[in-house]
Amino acid sequence: MSSRMKLQVLPYVVFNGKRLISITEYMETMHDYMQNSVLTQVHIGDILLEISVNDISESHVDLSHTYSRLAKENDDTLHKPDRLILHAIDIPEEFYEELGALQDLEPPFKAIFDAEKALWLVKHDVVLIGDAVHATPILGGEGANMAIRDGIDLARHIAMHGIDALEAFSNSKFEVWKKSVDNSKQMIEKMHT
What we know:
Layout: E1 12-22, H1 23-29, H2 31-34, E2 39-44, E3 47-56, E4 60-70, H3 93-101, H4 109-112, H5 115-123, H6 142-161, H7 166-191
Antiparallel strand pairs: 1-4, 2-3, 3-4
Helix pairs in contact: 3-5
């Protein structure tokens, strides 16, 4: 970024997620609503819900989903432009309350933006690894290599500590992940100078 440019945080609340579902579930709950497209969205008041299909295999469908809205003018607990990068993965309880307040969602949004399912994932130690937690630019397979390394490290961690220490795993990897992203930024800047 140019030294003359000032970073501007836009006044929006945005939560992104990914989900891998079986091809059977996709065909039963979503296919007919996607209307031969890889993207569908709906506005509910000031909230935009979006679902996109990233990849389809013989057995699974890889989906991305986004919940976004304009930040409220006064004390919006979900809009935290000054938070540390470390806290970017913290999801406030108020998000689940907002999600739960969305009543009578139509398919396919009902299947994806379900507050109970989202909260279950958080309470049941779902661990993010690879690009889901530390996206890196496409440079010589570094992101793929790190994702494989994360999987191996996670398996070792579970073998040594069990599944009750998953937060400790994520915390232990934070500096490594941050260094990798920083190194990737430096490499891509170097390539363009």
